[in-house]
Amino acid sequence: MTDDHHHKHKPATLSPSTPPLVCLLACWSPQSQQSASPPLAKASDPLLGSHRIQAVKHKRSRQPWRPRGVKPISQESWRRKRARAKKWREPWPAMGCSGGIEAACGGADRMEEEEAGAPSSSSSPPPIAQLGYDQLLSVLRLLPPEAVLSFAATCRAFRAWASSDALWEALCRRDWGARTAAALAERRRERERGGGAVPAPWRRVYAEVARLGALSARRVPVRGASPRPRASHSLNLVAGWLVLFGGGCEGGHHLDDTWVAYAGTGAGNRLPTVLSWQQLASGIPSGRFSHSCTLVGDTLVLFGGITDRGQRLNDTWIGQVISEEPRRMRISWRLLEVGPLAPPPRGAHAACCVNDKFIVIHGGIGLYGSRLGDTWLLDLSNGLRSGSWHQIRYTWPLPPPRSGHSLTWIGGTRMVLFGGRGSEFEVLNDVWLFDISDHSPKWKELKYDLSSALGEMPFPRVGHSAVLALGGKVLVYGGEDSQRRRKDDFWILDTPALLQYESGSKKMSKRMWKKLRIDGQCPNYRSFHGACVDTSGCCVYIFGGMVDGLVHPAEALGLRFDGQLYQVELVLHL
User: Fold this and answer.
1) How many helices (H) and strands (E) does the chain have?
2) Does residue 98 have a pLDDT over 90?
3) How far apart are CA 255 and CA 102, in angstroms?
4) Which of 190-199, 412-421, 519-528 comes out lowest in average pLDDT?
5) For residue 129, what pLDDT is reported?
6) Residue 264 to residue 243: CA distance in whole angstroms
7) Distance of CA 87 to CAs 80, 84, 93, 123, Å?
8) CA gyration radius for the chain?
9) Separation between Cα atoms, residue 214 and residue 514, nearest integer Å
10) 564/81 Cα distance (integer angstroms)
11) Contact between 563 and 235 (Cβ < 8 Å)
């Protein structure tokens, strides 16, 4: 017998201080488990050390094997012990009960104390054990999802409570907004009534949105007359109606027409199979392109733009939607009284609405073609009867002057600026965060390591669209580069992760940007199109734009404009 063979069969030696449970695990093997009679252990066996365990050979006895010195447990004791363990493992019986989590976190300890006859220590439970379920639910609603999941990993009862559908619905409502959560809930009910399938739990919905990776797209067919192909127009979804205004068309002419189409309320209604456009009165507001049109509730606020003669505008219009019939509507436009102060005339600027109280505009093309870098705020806190413009003064650093960029509100008092064309006609892909919460609004550039983010960030672009989709994600589509090559890719900017980076709790991750897969009829390459999102944040509508692959800047007559409407939907299993 070789030395290797001797060591192969030599058992490992455990120290005398090895706990008995470890000794038992060391002696166990699958072969011994399959044996009808467990092997007898010798008292001098080095595996047992000072813990000498006499294995009992049992043939027909139903009593379980136990070490020497342990008293047998009666059947009645076993039944009581199993009943208490089963009661402790059950989740909370009802949402409204207030017995506290002490029954779960202290149940095992009390069970052992009762079995041993020791006095209970429930007279001074830990602070968390004194909370009722309703109180615990209120605390969990204040935590970030990561903390809730960590709490759920503590024990079975905590996992059951942290998986409550009411809790995750509240988290969705908190993180996505009440209006979005209500629309999403109605969407789930519509699918349940239509297909009879039980909707997924809210926890799964939250996870689906967090790992969003695909979109489905289709071209919407149109019945009857349709808007003229155009670019640099505005597209909004107001009270279930798609509203299209202005833009530029072939020959470099501006348009002053307004078109509407009923698309549903966005609260579970599907877009009609065939869409019908209706043309409203033209001439008010005056024709223009490269203007901004934002929503304040269900009211349109239009500012600025450029005419076909090159004139820059700085007028502010209010568009009130008036429903006349279930499928008929009109828009009442009027000039907004803003006082003597107003932003300089401009076009191709970026704008967004903050909390239905303020309109923020930034940059654009001013007089003589200069790029602007100023920021203005329209205060509408007194209602839509009048407003007041004032320029936002801030300190360094500032975004470079640009045009054709996007400014997207992401909740609270924050907004994200992305891309555009700079003063030297360079195309940008930088990301800036703007916060107007305090008396000194601040810009902050969100820089990331290009070496680690290669392939996980969009290329520089101008004339793209950016909307706030479900889950607080900014969905960026299309645009063109410095060579006028149009793009057809979709990207999402993870704003929750962005805000964690901005607060200093995390470093900028290469997964801040994520490219999405497109299924179905993907919109082709385009720039300077119009895009808007429904109230649920699940559906994005895209219309028009310039669709040529490569156009020389001097070949204005070579531009081709698109007049198709696309619906792009987040792929979610609700």
Assistant:
1) 14, 27
2) no
3) 69
4) 190-199
5) 61
6) 13
7) 11, 5, 11, 21
8) 33
9) 10
10) 70
11) no
Burial of 411 (0-12, 13-18, 19+ CB in 10 A): middle
Residue 415 β-bridge partners: 409, 434
Cα 49 versus chain centre, distance: 59
Tokens standing for 460? 């520089």
Q: How far apart are alpha carbons 303 and 280 in whole angstroms?
A: 20
What are the pLDDT digits (tens) for 299-354? 999 999 999 999 999 999 999 998 887 778 899 999 999 989 999 999 999 999 99
Cβ-contact 292, 319 below 8 angstroms: no
CA triplet 288, 375, 313: central angle to 5 degrees?
20
In angstroms, the CA 516 to CA 500 distance is 22
Token digits of residue 14: 């455990």
Residue 390 parent element (H or E): strand 388-391
| 283-286-290-292 Cα dihedral, nearest 10 degrees | -90
Query: What domains does the chain contain, in order, with CATH numbers?
Result: 212-570 (2.120.10.80)
The pTM of the full predicted model, rounded to 2 decimals, is: 0.75
User: Hey, how many other C-beta atoms are within 10 angstroms of the C-beta on 120?
Assistant: 10
Helix axes 133-140, 165-176, angle to 10 degrees: 30
**Cα–Cα distance, 206 to 170 (Å, whole number):** 11
Lowest mean pLDDT among 66-70, 483-487, 523-527: 66-70
Length of the chain: 574
**For residue 261, which phi and psi values (nearest 5 degrees)?**
-150, 135
Max distance between CA atoms of the chain, in angstroms, equals 105
Q: Is the pLDDT of residue 551 over 80?
A: no
- The region that residue 544 occupies, defined by phi over 0 for left and psi between -120 and 50 for alpha, beta otherwise, is left
Convert the pLDDT of each residue in 429-479 to its tens digit: 999 999 998 778 899 998 876 655 445 789 999 999 999 999 889 999 999
Question: Does the pLDDT at position 256 exceed 90?
Answer: yes
Helix (H, G, I), strand (E, B) or coil at 517: strand
